[in-house]
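Field: sequence (string)
Field: structure_tokens (string)

Example rows 1 and 2, in order.
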Amino acid sequence: MVQLKDPALPPGAIVATHEEDGSLEEGQVRRNDGVVLDPASKNPWYVLATVAGEQSGTSVFKIDHNLRIKNRRYWHGWMCRHFSDEEKATLAAKLEVELDELNPLSEEEKGILYERFSKVFPDVGQDEIVPSPADDVDMSSTYFPSALDMSKFYFDGRVSFDAASFKGAAVFEASHFAWRVDFVDVFFAEDAFFQRAHFAGFAMFHSAYFSHLAVFSDGECKSVTDFSQAKFTNHVPFFFHREIYQDTSFSDNAKLWPDVTEKNAKQSKRAYTRLRQIAADIYDPDLEHFFLRQEMRCKERIELGKKDWFHAGMFRLFRWVADHGISVTRPFWLMVCVWAFGAGCAAGYFDSGAEAVSSTDLQDNRYLSAAGLSFGNLFGFLGINRLYFADMLRAAPDGLQFVAGLQTVLGVVLLFFFGLGLRNRFRLK
């Protein structure tokens, strides 16, 4: 298990900078799990993505969109320079950008690009200074201190942001990932925007940590997509109108999803409704049931905000029933508790020396008989009490008869939930 410096913070949170920790080089930071990240300004792929300049702030609202367009021109002019005219026309239509943006860089633009790289990497030769379009895009273990806007960028090969940390917003709106992309163990301290992004290959968001908004609406996922261990702390992710691949995974662990508050309940309810639909589309009934319960939790919180205690109570009751409908162990152990309570009441009655007990053969085996009587009460439809305990029950006090009747009712209800849980768990038809 990873030792965290601050157990109150997530593993990917930044806990030390170069100024605070002398063992770190200039620009480096240390995550809470001990991983050291290099500054984005020293990553050649980041430099290629910011030839025209870096964004100055961390908020998505402070992004300079004109600067992003200029940066994108250098990226595409370099990465797509070997594309045929037909390939460029097709890609320009997919990205919804001007065709000229994909043309090879002019000599003047190349000069600006080489100058930018020479300043960052003065000891690297010009032939090796800029990454090759044939290489994988590697921004793993990188710290991004300002917002990263790569909207409508084209990624031709494998892309890795593994163990990266985004202090500012991460914007990949309408970007096109032609092959595999990994955001494994990534920490998003601000909003993450992937709306209209196209994932043609594997898309791994395994163990990613989303501190704020995570927007994946619109766009397509054409291959395996993994959110199975992603954690969403403040907002339920948006997947409205996104085309989802059937082999897509989400977690049904409530600890990985945000707490429902009065502030986020309405928005979360809509997001969970969409996720429930996705779970149905990918034929995952357990996940669908989980998102239904989360949706009911949001509805309950909305009604509490209106001070509508009746409807809030109804939604809570529904969640309680739904929890039993998906669980096998919960109704089983409740049945054990109801049986044990009834057995204890019966044993106390037998120990009282009542005439109805002492005049039967039950006195010598009263604890075993108490257990049998309670079992017969719990499963009244088996007829055990009619065969062995009829006379004793007729002579029993009102309190014990009430317990027996309550056990019979609860036995039917809990047995129904137990069977329903088995059906949902093992898909028995």
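Row 2 begins here:
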Amino acid sequence: MINSEAIWRADVQQRIFRELLEAFSRPGDVRELPDWTDDAAAQRGVLATLMDGESTLADPHGLIDGRDWHLLQARREVPETARYVVADGRRAPDFEPALGSLESPEFGATLLIKVGSVGTGDDCASLTGPGIKESSELRYSGLHPKWLERRGEWISSFPLGVDMLLLDATRIVALPRTTRVIEMKRSAR
């Protein structure tokens, strides 16, 4: 049976891939995944774009629909060794992702963190680093404060570390390991 959802088509995946490239080259810029995804969640569109039979993927919080695993073709791994980890941003991180090695820092994990919103929200962080002119402000909601704290620990031995992608229903924002993130304001909990 062939899946006719737009996110599984090559032309849509190419568009999503271009948005991912833009997001990682301009950290903190919120990228919209427009109507061509047929209302699929940004997370599903990104996974459909990035995964193949060579990819390793962990889903410690059970966010991936069981029917999608076959289509993704990714090999299931534990979060500590997977190249990609999907996680619920409302929960504190409860695993230690792969950070790569000095010989191969590119083996550090990419964390796809599902949040309430990116680009809007009561929480705010200041971003600096490559791809950011002076500094920028990122607004968001639905991200447990421990994620940014742990991210700081995970990237403290650069070039080792993780890259993060925050995703809400329709938008993405990248936080590569080269980006410095300073939490400025948190809403009352």
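free_text_note (row 2): The first strand starts at residue 31 and ends at 32.
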